[in-house]
């Protein structure tokens, strides 16, 4: 093996720290997660977390470097826009590591203003361009805000509060019903 194919020990350590951090941030949000607990879970000394990430804030930023992989809606049939978005968000919420990242971001953004700003950055950099690709660009902020309100509401009810009627919905039921609402948000004009 060449040195290029063997992972460096520091890469392995960084990966272990990020994996542990995502679990802790998802479970308790930014406020409850501690460097000491994250390090213990990763099997390292807490000083290593600081060495690699500088602070809890730096670690949170690295752990929640979120690329939602949102679809290019300009390439989607007009009548399938809402279902396409619903399906993508359901994939993110139902599979690791996406679910851990989003859960951590959601829980933490509710109680921490700095984390809320990170969420707003994800909204501006990823969701707005997706919505701007369809419909009137001037109206995109309103439509994107409505889409996010629906997705966040679903996430809170299904993954945080675990409301039985929402948890019991089959994925395809969610895609169909939430998709119809998202479709209306994406294609409606302001009143």
Any chance you could write out the topology, listing elements then pairs?
Layout: H1 9-32, H2 35-42, H3 46-53, H4 56-63, H5 81-94, H6 98-111, H7 113-132, H8 140-160, H9 164-167, H10 171-187
Helix pairs in contact: 1-2, 1-4, 1-6, 2-3, 3-4, 5-6, 5-10, 6-7, 7-8, 8-10
Structure description:
The structure is a single chain. With 191 residues, the protein is mainly alpha-helical. It has two domains: 9-63, Homeodomain-like (Arc Repressor Mutant, subunit A), CATH 1.10.10; 73-187, Tetracycline Repressor, domain 2 (Orthogonal Bundle). The protein has helices spanning 9-32, 35-42, 46-53, 56-63, 81-94, 98-111, 113-132, 140-160, 164-167, 171-187. Helix 1 packs across helix 4, helix 3 (46-53) packs across helix 4 (56-63) and helix 5 (81-94) crosses helix 6. The longest helix has 24 residues, at 9-32. It starts with 8 loop residues before the first helix and ends with a helix. The relative contact order is 0.12. The mean pLDDT is 89.
Short description:
The protein is mostly helical and 191 residues long. 72% of the residues lie in helices and 0% in strands.
Counted up, domains total: 2
Shape: elongated
Q: How would you classify the helix and strand content by structural class?
A: mainly alpha
Mean pLDDT: 89
Specify the CATH architecture of the largest domain: Orthogonal Bundle
Beta-strand content estimate: under 5%
Helical proportion? Answer: over 70%
* Tally of alpha and pi helices: 10
Low-confidence stretches: none
């Amino acid at each position: 093996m060449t040195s290029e194919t063997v992972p460096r020990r520091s890469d392995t350590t960084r990966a272990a720290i990020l994996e542990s951090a995502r679990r802790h941030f998802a479970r308790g949000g930014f406020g409850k997660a501690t460097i000491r607990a994250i390090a213990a879970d990763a099997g390292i000394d807490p000083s290593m977390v600081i060495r690699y990430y500088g602070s809890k804030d730096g670690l949170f930023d690295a752990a929640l470097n979120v690329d939602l992989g949102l679809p290019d809606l300009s390439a989607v049939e007009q009548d399938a826009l809402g279902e396409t978005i619903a399906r993508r968000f359901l994939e993110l919420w139902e599979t690791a590591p996406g679910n851990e990242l989003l859960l951590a971001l959601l829980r933490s953004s509710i109680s921490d203003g700095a984390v809320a700003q990170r969420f707003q950055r994800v909204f501006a950099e990823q969701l707005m361009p997706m919505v701007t690709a369809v419909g009137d660009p001037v109206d995109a902020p309103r439509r994107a805000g409505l889409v996010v309100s629906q997705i966040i509401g679903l996430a809170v009810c299904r993954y945080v509060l675990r409301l039985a009627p929402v948890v019991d919905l089959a994925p395809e039921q969610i895609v169909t019903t939430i998709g119809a609402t998202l479709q209306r948000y994406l294609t409606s004009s302001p009143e």
